């Protein structure tokens, strides 16, 4: 679905944001794009959406090059930026005006997703809504477009805790085997139990790209018992129940993926992460 080869991009010649990036992401999955603020997550999404032009390398979405801005591509791709302009329209008018650009849009599904977000009055003006509620309207609209590619930049920013739970529930219901969803965030806990694969962006490049099963096959997440081999622990932190560790999973022990621990481990021990998840295998199908 998404094929990025040797991608370079910089806002100034002496400051590269992305350098020699290679990344392949497949359909039927929700991919989490993680990284610190300012690391280039938004830039990468804009390159995938065709809103920014690479300085080198290529971006392909199926048979399309995003920067060609072909109608067939644009009508099958939805991009929700973190910040969006004020929309002085009622919810129903916004949907009516913009849905013409998306042939697969379903007004029935739009209303269903709005109800999931506890938004019942579609006559409300969007500029009168809170930031979080406006964002939920746009997420519901994007899902109702049934695009093959959906890009969400920090979608949980501005959402309260109940709304984040609603977001996870709605996304899990809406995504199918024909869609590819990329969610960018620096709030890694917000993607718990939602994403199928994880991409970590750091130091101008992809530090990690792997599906959840591969990660838990190679790494163990849980309480340490003091028996860990020297050098196997990539990261540890004190919790209420004891010392939580991320270690090499030599004994193939089952554990639940902890995204926050993984993120901290990746930034703490970059070298071990690159050894365990080689870049030549930066593909999630």
From TrEMBL:
<dbReference type="InterPro" id="IPR027417">
    <property type="entry name" value="P-loop_NTPase"/>
</dbReference>
<protein>
    <submittedName>
        <fullName>ABC transporter ATP-binding protein</fullName>
    </submittedName>
</protein>
<dbReference type="Pfam" id="PF00005">
    <property type="entry name" value="ABC_tran"/>
</dbReference>
<dbReference type="InterPro" id="IPR003439">
    <property type="entry name" value="ABC_transporter-like_ATP-bd"/>
</dbReference>
<keyword id="KW-0067">ATP-binding</keyword>
<dbReference type="GO" id="GO:0005524">
    <property type="term" value="F:ATP binding"/>
</dbReference>
<dbReference type="InterPro" id="IPR003593">
    <property type="entry name" value="AAA+_ATPase"/>
</dbReference>
<dbReference type="GO" id="GO:0016887">
    <property type="term" value="F:ATP hydrolysis activity"/>
</dbReference>
<keyword id="KW-0813">Transport</keyword>
<feature type="domain" description="ABC transporter">
    <location>
        <begin position="2"/>
        <end position="228"/>
    </location>
</feature>
<dbReference type="InterPro" id="IPR051782">
    <property type="entry name" value="ABC_Transporter_VariousFunc"/>
</dbReference>
<keyword id="KW-0547">Nucleotide-binding</keyword>
């Amino acid at each position: 679905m998404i094929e990025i080869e040797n991608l370079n991009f910089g806002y100034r010649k002496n400051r590269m944001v992305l350098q020699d990036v290679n990344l392949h992401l497949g359909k039927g999955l929700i991919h989490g794009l993680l990284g610190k603020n300012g690391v280039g997550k938004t830039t990468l999404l804009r390159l995938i959406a065709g809103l920014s032009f690479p300085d080198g390398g290529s971006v392909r979405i199926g048979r399309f090059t995003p920067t060609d801005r072909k109608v067939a591509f644009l009508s099958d791709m939805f991009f929700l930026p973190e910040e969006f302009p004020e929309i002085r329209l009622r919810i129903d008018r916004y949907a009516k005006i913009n849905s013409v650009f998306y042939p697969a849009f379903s007004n029935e599904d739009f209303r269903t997703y709005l109800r999931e977000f506890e938004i019942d009055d579609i006559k409300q003006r969007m500029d009168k809504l809170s930031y979080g509620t406006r964002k939920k309207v746009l997420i519901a609209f994007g899902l109702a477009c049934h695009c093959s590619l959906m890009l969400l930049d920090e979608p949980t920013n501005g959402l309260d805790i109940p709304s984040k739970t609603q977001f996870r529930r709605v996304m899990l219901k809406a995504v199918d085997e024909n869609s590819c969803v990329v969610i960018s965030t620096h709030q890694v806990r917000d993607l718990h139990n939602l994403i199928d694969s994880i991409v970590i962006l750091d130091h101008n490049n992809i530090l990690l790209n792997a599906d959840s099963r591969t990660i838990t096959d190679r790494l163990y997440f849980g309480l340490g018992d003091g028996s860990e081999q020297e050098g196997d622990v990539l990261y540890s932190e004190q919790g209420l129940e004891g010392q939580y560790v991320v270690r090499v999973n030599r004994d193939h022990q089952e554990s639940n993926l902890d995204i926050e621990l993984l993120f901290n481990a990746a930034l703490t021990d970059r070298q071990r992460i690159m050894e365990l998840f080689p870049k030549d295998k930066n593909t999630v199908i």
